[in-house]
Every structure is written in C-alpha cells, then in structure tokens.
Amino acid sequence: MSESITSALQIPQSLRSIAHYVKIGAENADRDPIVHYWCLFYAVQSGMDIGKKSPEALQYLTSLLSILEDMKKKLGGEEALTQDLVAQAHIENFAMKLFDYADKNDRQSNFTKGVIRAFYTAGHLIDVLSLFGELDENLIS
C-alpha cells in the first residue's frame, strides 16, 4: 500500500463517518483506480459537510484532495473521471457485481465474512452513486 493511501486511512475522529468510503477506496486502489477515485471523492464531499471546522479534519480533507489531484494526473483522460455518466455506469457495474456475488452466496447459505463484506461494500458504493444525481429505482430496490 502506498504511503499516501496509508496516511489516508488515518482519519480524524470528527470524520469517522467517511472511513468506510476511504477504506473501500484504498482496498481498490490497485484493482480499480476509478472506484478508488470516486470513493475518495465522495469521502471528501461528505467530509466537507460534516467536519471541516477542526484543523485536523481540514488538514485531512486537504490531503485527500491532493491524492485525488495526483490520481487525476496519473489516470489522464480516463473517461470515468471526466464524464459523469461513464463514472456512474462504472461504479454501478462494480457495485452490482459485488451484490450479485453476495446474493448468490447468501441464497446458497454460504454465510462468510466475505459475503457480508460484499453486501456492505455494494451498499456503500450505491451511496457513492448519489454523487451523480438521483438513484435509479431498480438499483435502490
């Protein structure tokens, strides 16, 4: 795990509610940089709403913004960063794959930590989709 990702996981107490999104982003840093980017973006947006008053929170959010800027440069003209519709489809697809995996295992009575984690992660990715406007009714149900 890179140093910037490790430091991103050291979240101030006032911003604990965004920890899930930062962690999901970090877990996908190598596997899917697009998911990583948008999870961090969502974390920053949410963090600005809840806790930018403390110096630690402001410093933390600024460090996340620096990571996002570096990622944007590194990923160049990736459509999923520059076009909301493409980004939304990418994240929705990723979330649905996780949900389908978890649902299939749940129906087969395979109750493991991995299955629970997949449900949990899919739910948080659906939260991230709210960045792009109202959620599709089919997705919510």
Automatic annotation (TrEMBL):
Spell out the subcellular localization from the entry. Endomembrane system
List the GO terms this entry assigns under cellular component, sorted alphabetically. multivesicular body
Pfam assignment, any one:
Vta1
Cite the Gene3D superfamilies for this sequence: Vacuolar protein sorting-associated protein vta1
Keywords, in A-Z order? Membrane
Q: Which residues form the Vta1/callose synthase N-terminal domain?
A: 17-138
Read off the InterPro entries from this record: Vta1-like, Vta1/CALS_N, Vta1/CALS_N_sf
A single BP term in Gene Ontology: late endosome to vacuole transport via multivesicular body sorting pathway
Family matches, as PANTHER family? VACUOLAR PROTEIN SORTING-ASSOCIATED PROTEIN VTA1 HOMOLOG (PTHR46009:SF1)
Q: What is this protein called?
A: Bm5969, isoform a
